[in-house]
Amino acid sequence: MEPLIDTLKRQIIEVLKLSDLKPEDIDADAPLIGAGLGLDSIDSLELIVLLEKEYGVTVPDANTGRQVFASVRSLASYIEENRSKG
Amino acid sequence: MSIRVESFAALLPQGIAGPLGLRPWDEGQAGPGDVRRDQVLDKPYPAFGKLMLADRLAFAAASVALAGRQIAHKDSTAITLGISAGSLSTDMRYMESVIAGFPSPAIFSATLPSSAIADIAIYYGLKGPNRVVAGNGASGLTALELAVSLLKTGKASAVLTLCVNAVETQDATSPLVGGTAAASNAFALLLSLQPDNSGTAMRLSASFSPAAKEGAPARDELYFTELIRLVREQKGGSIEAASCDVAVTLSLAKEE
Prior knowledge:
The complex is a heterodimer.
Chain A: H1 2-15, H2 41-55, H3 62-68, H4 72-85
Helix pairs in contact in A: 1-4
Chain B: E1 2-12, E2 15-18, E3 21-24, H1 37-40, H2 53-66, E4 77-83, H3 88-99, H4 105-108, H5 115-124, E5 130-133, H6 139-152, E6 158-165, E7 185-193, E8 202-209, H7 220-233, E9 237-242, E10 247-254
Parallel strand pairs in B: 4-5, 4-6
Antiparallel strand pairs in B: 1-2, 1-7, 1-8, 2-3, 6-7, 8-10, 9-10
């Protein structure tokens, strides 16, 4: 899963235009929204678009979203789990 | 009435001008459109990189003008923004994402001419009234007129006036937002009423006549560039500008 985590870090920086950050600056276990990376609700929508566009994975509801966007690692787990379902 | 120019800023093709002088663009930077966070902000703002071009230019100009300043009355400090093409450049980017099949929520949230005002107001805690005008080449002058009106009527104790021209594409035929990468510009003036018996601050006296002037169309960047040159050099002078339907005469004078 580590390669996917590294890829996600690069994609998050690119999609959210976090130009001052490098992939190694992002803690894979730190919260994505609010504390940690400090992303907001609009950013989470942008990440939902990223999941659908790049991985064909959807987030069906807000409760799932809260778990998925808990960290980069949880995001990667969700992608791996749901890609294999597809 | 007289108005004090508390501070100013200009993002120009040749560099960033502010109270501390002109700082040329770094090598590899084509002009204002390439402005970086570390060049204009003195405290962290992770969202700077996410701002769309027009909003980023406005935010950068505001930040240079407000750098190191303590704003006394944030509740009554207003913002007026003249943005030549409104949110057109952002609208175009959003439509590109729609056509690509994945509409971007982040870009959609910025498809408002006033979105830069929201970012600046939140970042600096400014809670006074705000106005935005999108009127092509006379937008900045109209924003300046609105600023004077807010001060004159007592609706604001200070006004941050911004003028933004965002060039989003190299396609010079693109309506309103086409041109070279260096062609974007942005200006900021922090204005307040001139208190009686104050020190040696420079004054900007403004008067407006209701009659429109005939002649060449107004071009904000020329007027603001000249205005800021006069402010920087602390020279008396005057600028006469014909905007859409109002003639503006600005004169600067050193207080004795």
